[in-house]
Amino acid sequence: MSHWTDRAPYLKTMQTIESGILDEVLGRVAAYDYSAYGEREVRAALAKDRIGIADFAALLSPAAEAFLEPMAAKARLETRKHFGNAVALFTPLYLANHCVNGCVYCGFHHDNDIRRARLGGNEIVRELDAIAETGLEDILLLTGETRKESSVEYIGEAVKLAAERFHLVGIEVYPLNVDEYAYMHACGADYVCVFQETYDPVRYAEVHTLGPKRVFSYRFDALERALMGGMRTVNFGALLGLADFRKDAFAVGLHAHFLQRKYPKGEMAISIPRLRPYINNATENSRDVHEPQLLQVMLAYRLFMPFAGMTVSTRERAGFRDNVIGLCATKISAGVSVGIGGHGQDEEGDGQFEISDPRGVPEVNAAIKARGLQPVYIDYVRV
Amino acid sequence: MKVNGENVALEKTLDLSGFLVLRGFDEKLVAVERNGEIVPRGSFADVVLKADDVLEILHFVGGG
Amino acid sequence: MTSDEDALMLGEQAFRSRFILGSGKFSSEMMRTVLEHSGAEIATLAVRRANAGGAENILDSFPPGIRLLPNTSGARSAEEAVRIAKLARELGCGDFVKVEVIGDSKYLLPDNTETVRATEMLVDEGFVVLPYMYPDLYAARALARAGATAVMPLGAPIGSNRGLLTADFIRILVEEIDLPIIVDAGIGRPSEACAAMEMGCAAVMANTAIATAGDVAAMADAFRLAIAAGRAAYRAGLGRKLEKGAEASSPLTGFLER
Ligand code: SF4
């Protein structure tokens, strides 16, 4: 089984599911010509109570760049309506940086010569305890993508340890099958991040030179499998700057939109990573996605999906992050280390990318309050 | 027999088609349920009525 | 009919008119007049016990080309609805059926749970099913999953002529359900039919509002025009409303590094 987007065959372990969403999304993205939208369409979209797919397309167009201020005003209202003053805090914990994939933009790239490490059980406990000390209740566990060093059992055990100490546990690991997501859910995980990176299959093939990640459609379907496995929240993302960022942003919105319609119980969340310099490559950068374009994408997401959570990464500077919370973003990380370990002990392995906002939990907490917003540690209680 | 909720005596051996004609129904305009089963239109003549049959004879009326 | 004619698609069939006429309360003479003036191509019918002899044949009231849509009125459970639908099909006017299951004799509100069950069973039997329902998102999703061809939420309790009391909920169905949404029951005046169409409903059904008008033919005209106007407005995209609330005085985007 393989889809036309795939540059490598399915591995025997990879499950296929019946879903029309991939073709629906890619079909619409292929037909999306953002240069066809002008001021007229943007104004019309901004005048509406409900932003449809065509309006979303207009808001992502270059023509809408001149409308950032009215977009921001409308987005702020929507954010307030759906999330009130709350801004959720979380932190990622990198468990391992071994990876069999070759993503040319990533420091964990298989062929990259970095210090590799994997936290053992005691180390995980030490890290988790140190993070729990800060008062955080939401943790995202990450690994590089390999079933060898980071097996399902290994990740499951880490989830169990985290669930004992945190109210909310997310995982950002290689794509899993439905039964494996169900297992992770049973271990205590509630949300799953799988970023497609780019929805342009040709560009996808260029930047993913190696490993199972080359199977585009298996990755695309991962969040649907996560919902089928009982996960509460799924988190989308395109690494903006990797390909045509407007088309990729359009694809992310459609992907979440159609998945929400098919699984109305599932909660949708979006991340908005930009390409950043990473270890052993300080030059690769986000090309045409500067802060105004990044904000435009975030505002368009918010207006199209007022109900979706939105996480702002530490790849962005503090001044940017502090201004987008309450405006469109609803979740922010604090006390981030992107290396392996680094909370309860010294870092053992090298990091994935460079962070721009090194602030710890108290500082981020204070920054949220200073804006008249409410830092929230527990968004909901897992039942 | 019970026809549309009323007791009707079956005086001689009759098929459904003959019964409908006798009672003044237009065969082309009604559907008949016999003992809870729809009798296909066009086969009314093949159904010989029994004394304990329950018939529902229905047609269309105006309605929203 | 070509596709750019904005047809209403129900099952395999395309309709030019977006008005569905309930056929109660009209003489057959009047019915022909109303059909002509309203432009309706679909009319509903009910199935009842026949009285012996001489009854006029209601089917004679409908010119050829009118799609008949029998309803299951009288059904109080899914099983009864299925039974009535099968009898209607036996009467020979095709596979369309408007499922109507009402288990409350006081308020006459549709029973969504039974309606979903009836829809599942009838779809299995090959019917083209248009269920009448209370506008509840979960029920509408269940109907869509069951294979309904359209959903027919009520605008207000049957016969109440109270208009679009449920407008906010019908709007949610329009947004969320990928099926034609047809407002049934409650529509008392052309302006309400127009409002439903502006919201994006696919069609409107009415009966009492026309049957009880002073001039029935003229009211049928009024409904035809109102529905066409509402549809045209929806297709045109509603224009800009005056902004509510003040714009922020200090810029929200001044922090950007450009
Ligand atoms: S992005 Fe993920 S899959 Fe790709 S090299 Fe980095 S860790 Fe591995």
Which labels suit this protein?
heterotrimer; B: 64 residues; mainly beta; Ubiquitin-like (UB roll); five-stranded mixed beta sheet; 11% helix; 31% strand; C: 258 residues; TIM Barrel; 8 helices; globular; binds iron/sulfur cluster
Textual characterization of the structure:
- The complex is a heterotrimer of chains A (383), B (64) and C (258).
- Helices cover 38% and strands 12% of the residues of chain A.
- Chain A is an alpha/beta fold and 383 residues long.
- Chain A has a single domain (21-376), classed as TIM Barrel.
- An 8-stranded parallel β-barrel of chain A has the order 1-2-3-4-5-6-7-8, surrounded by 6 helices.
- In chain A, helix 6 (152-165) links the parallel strand 2 and strand 3.
- The radius of gyration of chain A is 20 Å and the shape is globular.
- Chain A starts with 20 loop residues before the first helix and ends in a 7-residue tail after the last strand.
- Helices cover 11% and strands 31% of the residues of chain B.
- Chain B contains 1 helix and 5 strands; from the N terminus they run ββαβββ.
- Chain C has a single domain, classed as Aldolase class I (TIM Barrel, Alpha-Beta Barrel).
- The radius of gyration of chain C is 20 Å and the shape is globular.
- Chain C has helices spanning 28-38, 78-90, 112-124, 137-146, 167-176, 190-198, 208-211, 216-236, and strands at 8-10, 13-15, 19-22, 42-49, 67-70, 96-99, 128-133, 152-153, 182-183, 203-206.
- The longest helix of chain C is centred in the last third of the chain and has 21 residues, at 216-236.
- Chains in contact: A-C, B-C.
- Chains B and C meet through strand 5 of B and strand 4 and helix 2 of C.
- The structure holds iron/sulfur cluster (SF4).
- Iron/sulfur cluster (SF4) binds at residues 99, 101, 103, 106, 108-109, 144-145, 213 of chain A.
